[in-house]
Amino acid sequence: MKSKIIVSMLVFALIGLVQFETRSQSNNQKAKTKDSISVSLDISKRQGLIYVSHIVLDYVSVLDPESNHLIGKIKAGNGTCCVELSSDNGYIANYKSNDITVFDKKTSKLITSVPAGDHPTHLVLTADSRYLLIGHESNDGLWFLDTRTNQITKKLPDGTGILCRYEKGGKIYQSQIFIPYVFVIDPETQTIVKRINVGGRPLDLAFTPDQKYICVANYDLNELEKIDTETDSVVARIPNVNNARGIAITLDSKFAFVTNATSSTVTVVDLGSESVVKVLPVGTTPTSVAFRKDGKYAYVSCQGNASIFVIDTQTQEIVKSIAVGSNPIDVQVK
User: What is the DSSP letter of 305?
Assistant: First the structure.
């Protein structure tokens, strides 16, 4: 019974995995016919590329931020969820094949595949890139991979959600999608040092660029929480952000863009006045959002449309939709 409950929660958390499975199989065949998988893409010297993970496919799409066109695909395991990059290597979490793909950034070729427990979904490197933290959407908690040996060296029983590194102090924050907490993790001791009770279901989190605050997208409470990173305490709650799923904050720290998973919209929140200023219609089941390096555009992965919607951050209007492979669950700019 417990396993059945966990499975149902996982499907809900990833939003749309079952709903779009049939459609994705058809789209997957079309995508493979149209675009061959790149095995020689060199991303080692490219900054600000757009990486799109697909929860039902075995590759990550790579888009050019200037042309907004697909420039290649990185082969991975089954059910890609998240990308992380060190100076030399790349790492991809694979939800369905339960492993981590380690690849060479110069060639995009596989170095190794590391078994990583049940449904690994979120990754972050420590500041020195010594360890890769692996978050799961299962009972497997938080794992640590030594990047020198590509071996799992520690497993914590807790930790199920998106990971975010605090650059100033090195600590790592993790939203907990099954329980109402944000964890603070010390990567030196590899321990959870604090559990911040935010209530509801915190699905995503993002720092303000000055890293004074971390903002949390809370699905169940339909709000954002602002956490002071010095005190690790909730200092504000911003209401009327319905079904908050993914979040990113503009480079000037003025606005948060939040995907609304069930209403096919993006909510724009003024962090100064702590109020909603706009709600934008986008594609079906928007999950993740990320900004271009210069902050000019926001990219929204719309899982139900197999597309990335592009928002001009100045006008706060949709300017383009980019067709990608089916079920784009996550979009990252690195």
Answer: G
Distance, in Å, from the CA atom of 138 to the CA atom of 149, rounded to the nearest integer, reads 25
pLDDT computed for residue 38 by the predictor: 54
Calpha distance 245→285 (Å, rounded):
10
C-alpha to C-alpha distance for 288 and 9, rounded to whole angstroms: 18
Residue-wise pLDDT for 115-134, tens only, equals 999 999 999 999 999 999 99
Nearest to 208 by CA among 261, 274, 159, 142: 274
What is the residue type of 87? Answer: S
Say what the pLDDT of residue 169 is: 74
CA dihedral 325, 326, 329, 332 (to 10 degrees): 10
Element of type H or E holding 24: helix 21-34
285-320 tens-digit pLDDT: 999 999 999 999 999 999 999 999 999 999 999 999
pTM: 0.89
Please tell me the distance from the alpha carbon of residue 102 to that of residue 23, in angstroms, as a whole number. Answer: 29
Tokens of 194: 């604090």
How far apart (Å, rounded) are the C-alpha atoms in residues 2 and 98? Answer: 20
* CB-count burial class (<10 Å; 0-12, 13-18, 19+) for 35: middle
Q: How far, in Å, CA of 164 to CA of 76, rounded?
A: 23
- DSSP class of residue 304? G
